[in-house]
Amino acid sequence: MEGPLFEGPNSVSAMHKVDLSSIGVSADKINHAYISKVRVYLPDSSNFNLFGDFKFQLTADEASMVECAQLNPIPSNVSSVDLKTSSEADLKDFFKLSEFVILMDGNLKEDYFENVNFKADLEFTINVTE
Amino acid sequence: MRTTLFAIICIFAFQVNLFSQTEADRLTGVWEPSNGKARVKIDKIGTKYFGKVVWLKEPIDPETDKPKVDKNNPDKALQNAPIKGYRLLKDFQFKEGNIWHEGTIYDPENGSTYACTIEMVDENTLEIRGYIGISAFGRTDVWKRLQIPKRD
Predict the structure, then answer these.
(1) Distance CA A27, CA B53 (A)
(2) Is residue A3 part of a domain?
(3) Chain B residues with CB inside 8 Å of A14's CB?
(4) Is A12–B5 a contact, with Cβ atoms under 8 angstroms apart?
(5) Cis-peptide into B62, omega within 30 deg
(6) Which domain holds residue A29?
(7) A47 within a domain of the structure (yes/no)
(8) Which of A20, A119, A126 sits opposite B9 (nearest CB)?
(9) Which of B30, B76, B79 is nearest to B68 (CA)?
(10) Which of A59, A71, A124, B75 is most exposed, with the fewest beta carbons within 10 Å of its own?
(11) How high is the pLDDT of residue B68?
């Protein structure tokens, strides 16, 4: 997030280009996909004390936005957190596209005048019909 | 059926839309529903419009004495997400004239999502119509654009 940041809701996003060939999956064979792990890091070794919560969504021009993970509250004095993921949130439509946007929302507890950098590891579980 | 794991690493960037203002972008801004309980900021992601709660008149849940969360969400994994920051309006596309359609509106008071269209009556007034099935069976609310006092 590029500072200055103001108290309340803020958002960051990342574009992901879909390539299922590396795992040998054909998009038209996917019958359910969900996010099974989200771990967010602050790479600059600071902590999450500025943030009250995080929420993840996927969105694309050709698919409706889906909320898939959240964590509230964020524990104190940690530099990585695992979000609570939803297995009900079906994400299969996104894997049929060429790309989608991963959107992370976070409520900032107070104004902050610096940039904040995030990295996240995401793991999806994809059920495929043989 | 088989199950496959697929992992990706994301480096996040500040969400910014470097788009020139179009006729459709008139919808962006901060709006207040008729009940005055919330303020919703509408912005653009890709080619669609989304509205998230940026202010609540009563941010604290009197039952828990903590900030309100989405306790009526039908997905249990998401029930602890805060209402402040929640995207109530999702996936609106500009149709023509003063209409944005193909979107949904979420009511956190009952956890229901409704089909929705938005009509801009004038530059500071929206008619938000939520409905189930066909538009004839629904409810319309009037939202006003938040006016920022001009400084001399």
Answers:
(1) 35
(2) no
(3) 10-13
(4) no
(5) no
(6) 8-128
(7) yes
(8) A119
(9) B79
(10) B75
(11) 96
Distance from CA of B55 to the nearest CA of A (A): 8
In total, chain B counts a number of residues equal to: 152
Q: What is the mean pLDDT of chain A?
A: 90
Strands (E), chain A: 8-17, 30-41, 51-60, 63-71, 80-82, 84-85, 99-108, 119-128
Helix (H, G, I), strand (E, B) or coil at B64: coil
What proportion of chain A, given as a percentage, has pLDDT over 70? 97
Q: Taking the model in full, what pTM does it have?
A: 0.90
Return d(Cα B75, Cα A89) in angstroms, integer: 8
| Sites in chain B below the pLDDT cut of 50 | none
Which candidate, B52, B15, B49, places its Cα nearest to that of A5? B15
Domains of chain B (ranges, CATH numbers): 24-145 (2.40.128.520)
A102 within some domain: yes
Mutate to test the interface with B, among A26, A31, A53 (most CBs of B within 10 A): A53
- Do the chains contact at B1 and A127, CB–CB below 8 Å? yes
A124 and B6 within 8 Å at the Cβ level: the answer is yes
Give per-residue pLDDT as tens, A35-92. Answer: 999 999 987 767 788 899 999 999 999 999 999 999 999 998 888 999 999 999 999 9
Q: Which two tokens stand for residue A40?
A: 């967010």
Kindly provide the ipTM of the predicted complex, given to two decimals.
0.89
CB contacts < 8 A, A to B, total: 147
Residue in B with minimal Cα distance to A36:
B5
